[in-house]
Amino acid sequence: MEDSKNDNLAYKLHYLNRLLMLQLNDQIKPEGVSQGQLPVLCCLHDLEGQTQAELCTRIQVEQPTMANTLRRMERDGLIRRIPCEQDKRQSRVYLTDRIRPTVEALQQKRDEVIGKMTGRMSVNDISDFHRLLDSALLALETNNEI
Amino acid sequence: MEDSKNDNLAYKLHYLNRLLMLQLNDQIKPEGVSQGQLPVLCCLHDLEGQTQAELCTRIQVEQPTMANTLRRMERDGLIRRIPCEQDKRQSRVYLTDRIRPTVEALQQKRDEVIGKMTGRMSVNDISDFHRLLDSALLALETNNEI
DNA sequence: GAAAATTACATAGCAGGCTATCTATTGTCA
DNA sequence: TGACAATAGATAGCCTGCTATGTAATTTTC
């Protein structure tokens, strides 16, 4: 049976994701940025001053994951957090001046890795790939028992 | 720009993989098995007595990753390791009697999650999905600069 | 046959995902 | 107003991936 030899969608997706994240990491490492931090940089590049909770919602990770990511990013000088006056529980997150000018180049690096991945695909293939991923995402996001 | 709003293949793949692994975990957790352990169980179900290095090659993870996974699986009573007489550096890995009879049911659980993911796809879609993942894998496995 | 290279595996340390739980603040309502 | 509920974020602890490095056994080479 093929599936027991790892020839199944779950294995392929998992392995492809690992390859992709490794190569993405390699591309953005020179700027001192890692794979998990890039979505936060992009999200803040769209709109600075978001709260941790807002970043969680947009990037779709759990709150403690974001808390850890932000801690590392602050440590590495990618973001700064400014406590909110009105609500002392929350902070607003901003890019540092050092990283702000490089975010678009980082997005380009990411797109190059995606380009390598889709190198042998036709335009139709790529739009099918998007469509199939969207369909799979929607199916898994739908909250009911299997 | 759409890509800066996480509407890109890298983000989708990453997110889909996370959803898939979470739901796979939920399905196999009752048997005391987790997502990263399932490929090892399947691989040993095909052929018991493989070495750590052989498992690495088949499952395509780095050796320290496998070492850790095997340590947890031994701790949890999923495998046992028998030192090799001829070559004292290596051990051969076997399923425990407890887990051996359940491996096929676990594979079925995995296939159910995959089924949920592909629920709205046609047979053609699914074969396209395989083809596109294979193409992407091949492109990223090819070892040259972007 | 001994030194050197290789191999098999273990360990340390990090990133980034998760759940569960804690603290402090804010909001609600009787 | 004072108690309780809800919210924002931090922390602890786990898994699974990675790189770098260490150690013991084996193989190769001179």
Protein architecture, described:
The structure is a homodimer of 146-residue chains. Chain A has 146 residues and is mainly alpha-helical. Chain A has a single domain (2-141), classed as Orthogonal Bundle (Arc Repressor Mutant, subunit A). Helices cover 58% and strands 7% of the residues of chain A. A two-stranded antiparallel ribbon of chain A has the order 1-2. In chain A, a hairpin with a 7-residue loop joins β1 (79-83) and β2. In chain A, α2 crosses α5 (103-117) and α3 (52-59) packs across α4. The interface between A and B is large, with 57 and 56 residues. Chain A binds a DNA duplex (30 and 30 nucleotides) through residues 18, 21-22, 25, 34-37, 51-53, 61-69, 71-72, 87-91.
Layout of helices and strands:
Two copies of one chain form a homodimer.
Chain A: H1 9-28, H2 38-46, H3 52-59, H4 63-75, E1 79-83, E2 91-95, H5 103-117, H6 123-141
Antiparallel strand pairs in A: 1-2
The structure holds a DNA duplex (30 and 30 nucleotides).
